Amino acid sequence: MSRMMGRQPAALVSAVLLSLAAPAFAQMGTGRVSGTVSDPEGNPIAGALITARAGDSSRVLEATSDDRGRWAILGFRSRAYDFSVTATGYMPYNYQAPMSQAGKNPDMDLVLERAQMGQSAGTGGGLLAEAQELHRAGRFEEALGVYEEVLSSDPTVYQVNLNIGAVLRELNRPDEARAAFEVVLEQEPNNAGAIVSLAELAVAEGDLDTAVMHFEAAIDATDDEIIPFNVGQIYFQNGRVDEAIEFYALAAERKIDWAEPHVQIAICHLNKGDFAMAAEHLNMAIEAEPDSAAAAQAQAMLDALPQP
Hints:
This protein has three domains: 31-124, Immunoglobulin-like (Sandwich); 126-224, Serine Threonine Protein Phosphatase 5, Tetratricopeptide repeat; 227-308, Serine Threonine Protein Phosphatase 5, Tetratricopeptide repeat (Alpha Horseshoe), CATH 1.25.40. The chain is α+β, with helices and mostly antiparallel strands. Helix content is 53%, strand content 14%. The strands form two sheets. The chain has a four-stranded antiparallel β-sheet with strand order 3-2-5-6, with no helix packed on it.
């Protein structure tokens, strides 16, 4: 087969390999969600473990909150997931939420109650939790009202504007959403969540240059690997493969055991007709995360490459 492929035009070989790549990303899921974990006073909780499982699936997605309570998970497919949030000294928080594979899902800003003697696992409560449940259920107008009530009762919790902005975006009120995100940035100029949200508004409006400007600012504000990966996706979808390679490479550098950025870099090189560089990154994908679906697809693509 490889000898036959070797006689085909480069564009045809690339098309075959790109078609091989598509099912892998559909299987893995490309949806993402991010958020924060804090105590009832709004103090961030570091080291909280957030896990997401789809029904009886053995595949678990997880993240750990950083010193500012922030976390992010990539890899969701379009279905409901069971989430569990645990941290030493706090009551576990369990809930179910529908996730979409198409890009970013609503932020999840979670509040954990402190554990008391004799307490067992349960589900968190409070006004903010009520708003988040309405948000996840798609009841955006109701969620907006409760989020605004939370902010009115305590104007110091300015981070709630992230949730308000997300709901306003769902309600197709982009100018108001942008204003809510900018309120957060007035208090915390390097808040990556607010910066990324502004970038996503720009993407929705077709303003690529503004979107990339915000994404690059978010990259400087955090060591999160998902943000540069998504910048790479934007560049790739707009046919700017050299810039896409740069940001996929940064994502791979930030998370060395992640195969997907290397597969995406390989796809970029296939678009350029550079099979040698594509093969190099497919091998790197397999080495980085050998048991993943992305690595399996990388191997299939590697097997389909024309032999030198």
